[in-house]
Specification:
The protein is an alpha+beta fold. The protein folds into 2 domains: about 5-115, 2-Layer Sandwich (D-amino Acid Aminotransferase, Chain A, domain 1), CATH 3.30.470.10; about 125-280, Alpha-Beta Barrel (D-amino Acid Aminotransferase, Chain A, domain 2), CATH 3.20.10.10. It is built from 8 helices and 16 strands. The structure holds N-(5'-phosphopyridoxyl)-D-alanine.
Amino acid sequence: MSIVHLNGRNLPAEEACVPVLDRGFIFGDGVYEVIPVFGGRPFRLDEHLRRLENSLAEVRIPNPHTREEWAALIQSLIEANGGGDQSLYLQVTRGPAARDHALPENPAPTVFAMSNPLRPPAPEIIEHGIEAITLDDIRWSRCHIKAISLLPNILLRQTALDAGAAEAILIRDGYATEGAASNLFVVLDGELLTPPKGPRLLPGITRDVILELAAANGIPHREADIRREDLARASEIWVTSSTKEILPVTRLDDAPVGDGRPGPVFRKMYALYQANKAALRTP
Ligand code: PDD
């Protein structure tokens, strides 16, 4: 039975209850984080907590915990769920209040966290890659906030699944922004590119790790706008996230990407990422 955290207490998932008037339930009024845990240790915890603080500030939900309290809460939940590898989900909503669009005067945020299994991508996926399709980015204009209201992302992802693809690559005003639940990288003319941070995309923690690894290992890279047409010219396309790690996209919109197989820059980065992960497991 999995153990969850709710408002200061660890308890079995089945026993955790939230009031029906919680603004997370009524309005989708809340923010979240997904933190990968390797060998019982949260990966890039400070970066995830900084992004959470930023999301909370952007939507004007008072942060219910200090960084130290967040870290202790997370560690306690990891241990309550047996350590090892996990995907830690954290959510803060504005809490229960009479339904009114206006913000409640004295909000009592609801803090919820749970542990989900974290499995590395299957070897077949690393060997062959995934298929993706491009779709118009129908989301709002503040995608840098990790908001729990994910209806557009859900519909985009499902449209991709219905088309037999694993992820949607989103296009806004002619530019590729990110995936429905991932960031985007392309290799174009020998250079690794990813769109710059800003309100059109979530500042992914995995994205930052990849840029750091590229810098430390002499892989030519740059943050740059990626036009829709660039995708067709790219020799490699990847999508990245805390739970998917790095996935090579080998077919886009029913056409092969490059030679239709995961490329050499992916293979190098994948190995670097795995080594980075393994280092976290070694005390
Ligand atoms: N999503 N962009 C979007 C829209 C995302 O939802 C995610 C991750 C990312 C990658 O961010 P990171 O590298 O920090 O995981 C980019 C999480 C995993 C989710 O919603 O489950």
